[in-house]
Amino acid sequence: MISSDATVDIVRNAVLTVIMVGAPPLIIGLTVGIIASMLQTITSIQEATLAFVPKIIAVLMALVLFGHYMLTTLQNFFFNTIGLIPTFLT
Hints:
Blueprint: H1 4-43, H2 49-89
Helix pairs in contact: 1-2
C-alpha cells in the first residue's frame, strides 16, 4: 500500500519536473513576445505575424538549446519514479 507521504512526494516531483521542463521555452517565448509587442507599440505597426513568428522561432531555438537538459530532467524523473515501484509493492 502506498503511503500518503510517498504520494505527495511523487506529485511534488512531477510538478517540479513539469516546471523545470516547461520553463525555458515559456520564459523565452514570453520575453520575445513582450519585446515584439513593445516594438509594435512603438512603431504603431499592428500586424499579427510580427508578434507570432518571432515567438515561434524563439521557442524552437529554446527547444534546440535546452532540449538536452529537458530530456535529461524527464529521464531522471521517469527512472526515479519507476525505481520506486518495487517499494510500493511491498
